[in-house]
Amino acid sequence: INEFTSPGARFHLGMAEDADVGSNSLQGYELETNGYFAVEVKGSHDGSKLAELVLRRPLDRESEQTLRLLLTALDGADPPRSGTAQLWINVTDANDNPPVFAQDRYRASLREDTPPGSRMLNVSASDADAGTNAHITYGFGKMPEKVLQKFVVDVESGMITLQEPLDFEDTSAFSLPVEARDGGGLVAHCEVEVEVLDVNDNAPEITILSLSSPVPEDAPAGTVVALLKVRDRDSGENGHVSCELSGEEPLSIVASPGGSYKVLVLAKALDREEAAFHELVLRASDGGDPARTGTARIRVTVLDANDNAPVFSQAEYTVRVPEDVPVGSVLITVTAIDPDEGLNGQVKYS
């Protein structure tokens, strides 16, 4: 009898035979006490008494798969005589139970450098039915094509495997809806949350947003020479960047309050006559282990200022001149040098 059979259904059991007649013949039937069935006597036109099994309440194969009941036939004598038969009832399965996942929500963590083909997680569902009604297959629910390309779920085992490389900087988490479907078409759902763990796979990037070059040599200390943007696409310590400047001393680096911008400022006065340009290397290192670095080269030219007076080759010249020297004679040549550049370095005499 199928477990979906409605209460009130009747099943013919046939009849018992009694060779006696009259009140000593078969009078009725009794059924062993149980929670599902009763027996009723049905008379026929020839006076025989048939037994019918009547279902009183719904069956449930998952709680009782078989029932063994004793049916007794009684005659009308005093005391009565009886005969018995055993009823063996097999309750056949109906697809009245959907699959049930072991967990409503699964969580997994994967490093972003996990190689494709790696097994991630095994989801599992069970079904209380039997046979094909209990055969479960797995699949993904509706989700973006981009996510479907990343993961695959084994139809039979529920094992979820990574198909394509991950990139934390592109997507740091995935939500995968998984379905379990039994052979009768009933479906259960669960959610798989995948956290992508950052790996230090990005070096810091340095972008020169502005650069003032040349810089006048009389610019005061603290003058901003360059504005830089320093960025690392990683997160946490892997994305925490520190900067250092190597090269000549006149420039120093200062972090802006936001942390992602840096400024180069004059740490002390410049002197073009000492150095006409300065070559610097900015090195940015992240907090990963091992750390990754990025570098940028900056060349700052110093613009001349008229900060030097001409200087004679001697502070005092002595010339002995005969009194009869002709007018127009060259007595001496004096020289002065100005270390400045261009017009600032051209010397005139008077």
From TrEMBL:
The UniProt record lists the keyword Calcium: yes
What topology in the membrane does the UniProt record assign?
A: Single-pass type I membrane protein
In the UniProt record, which is one GO cellular component term? Answer: plasma membrane
Q: Name one Pfam family in it.
A: Cadherin
The answer, when asked if Signal is one of the entry's keywords, is yes
Do you know which SMART domains this protein is assigned to?
Answer: CA
Entry's CDD domains?
Cadherin_repeat
In what residue span(s) does the Cadherin domain sit?
Answer: 1-101, 102-206, 207-312, 313-350
Give the top-rank taxon of the lineage listed in the UniProt record for this protein.
Answer: Eukaryota
- Keyword annotations of the record: Calcium, Cell adhesion, Cell membrane, Glycoprotein, Membrane, Repeat, Signal, Transmembrane, Transmembrane helix
GO biological process terms on file:
homophilic cell adhesion via plasma membrane adhesion molecules
Where found? Cell membrane
Q: Which GO terms describe its molecular function?
A: calcium ion binding
The molecule here is called: PCDGH protein
